[in-house]
Amino acid sequence: MISRAGPWRAAGYLVTGVLVGAPLLVGLLVLAVAGAALTPLLVGLPLLALLALAGVPVGAMERWRLRLVDPAPVPAPHRTPDVPGLAAWAGLRFTERATWRELGYAVLLAAVLWPLDLLVLTGAAGIPGAMIGAPAQLALAGDETRVAKLWLIDSYGQACLCAAGGTVLLLALLWPLARYARARAAVARLLLAPRETERQLAEVTRSRARLVAAFEAERRRIERDLHDGAQQRLVALSMQLGLARLDAPPELAQRLAAAHRDADQALGELRELIHGIHPQVLADYGLGDAIADAADRSAVPVELDVELPRLAEPVESAAYFAVREALANVGRHSRARRVWISGRYARGRPGEGRLRIEVRDDGCGGADARAGTGLTGLTDRLAVLDGTLTVDSPSGGPTVLHMEIPC
Amino acid sequence: MLRVVLAEDSVLLREGLVGLLGRFGHEVVAAVGDARALRDAVAAHSPDLVLTDVRMPPGFQDEGLREALALRAADPRLPVLVLSQYVQRAYAAELLGTGDGTGVGYLLKDRVGQVEQFAEAVERVGAGGTVVDPEVVRQLLRRRRDPLEALTPREREVLGLVAEGRSNSAIARELVVTEAAVGKHIGNILGKLDLPPAQDTHRRVLAVLAYLRG
Asked: What is the torsion angle, in degrees rounded to the nearest 10, for the CA atoms of residue A42, residue A43, residue A45 and residue A51?
């Protein structure tokens, strides 16, 4: 849809198209020729690889330029690489169809689209512009001038008539100009926007992250409700029963004692339940202390080597529950006598830091991440944060679980 | 009789605790519902003991504990007993780190149901003793499983009670043995763990806790 500012934006889109396209043609030609010429010397190969990836920045630029005429934003069709580094980035891009579509678009832009843009611009704006400028041109030239190298004009009457004609022509041509820009934008969108499956995948990934976040928020709400409600009431009840026992006659005191025991047992169970839902230590002290807490509760003795700063809440939460699940697995299946947990955070630029946690035991091994155990759930949970879980568990042991989350 | 400032955000529990402390002859000079008010009340009343919940408004995280630590930092001799909804070794460690661990207590909130033991704990902390929740001690004992293997089951039991801050006579009562027997157990434990012999209950508690915390 093109708004009222449309014709001007359309003209802007075409002008910038020329400004991008012409240098692009030169750049692509230089890369192609240099790459081809230097291939026998091997230096040419990286140049050709660069040429193949040239569509990626061009695509980004063109999607940005599309906003001039197309209000619906075009998301990037690429995925974010799982690991940092140029090699991983390039490797991923080479496998994506979108990269090749973008390259196709870049070649099309350099070879066909920008000359076409220039032609249309000249026709729709250049000629009327020259006609409108006729009186000024005549004044500069003296007694006669040629407008757009076509018409000879030698009087101000003719010049004014010409300018009026130019204005009418300009207004008349604005609409086709906008139409052309729209068609031109449609071509760009077709080649540069993510395909349906790519878009769906991106949306599913995002909605999965949203679901996990909502799930997490709900957990915390339940924990808080139980803590503020049932738990406080049970403590108050237990206290009242305790006080009543002090003053009660022996027979009643005995029955009160039984009630008191029940209340305390319920309280203990509730406390464990609340802790399982979302341990407060995680919120207050972070992942390091929460892992120490989980280790304290482990059936198998744990040796810790964990040094971690505070991290983003979803990361801490996912890692904590992963460690807990890992410890539960050790307790259930491994027959291990000891567990070692190490945790480190490697700082990096935003989004490039790495949380690495390793859970190792001296048990019997044979754990399989795909066998539908808790390990599958662990993998899923980490995947939401683009994290990974590797399990090395040869039959006979030992089992080593390694998790890594970018954060 | 102790003059107590009480901080607890649940009205139900606050009223209950005021009643409980009154029943054992203590006076609650101020009962407040958040950490800020706790600070003001302590400044206004200079109490003999502060009893506070860990989790309080406005953030419902560990405001009460933070305030307790701040109060201890300002006056290391102010007895503080902290009630926590669940066991958190980090909390206990932070508290014991203030004012060389005298006059501090860390108990699970559930313990207030055992009114007599709770009242005893309040008095112990008020008198400058150290009180550590049995659950914390249990976790500590579990963590140091290896070096403790040298102890007999009975000695481990005694060690746990010492770590909770109990006196010899209280341990004797709990285990239904004589005080002399308790003293002998304690001597054996200190010997096996290479801890310096100490007659003073309080020093011993701190030495054992320091050992368990490794």
From this structure: -160
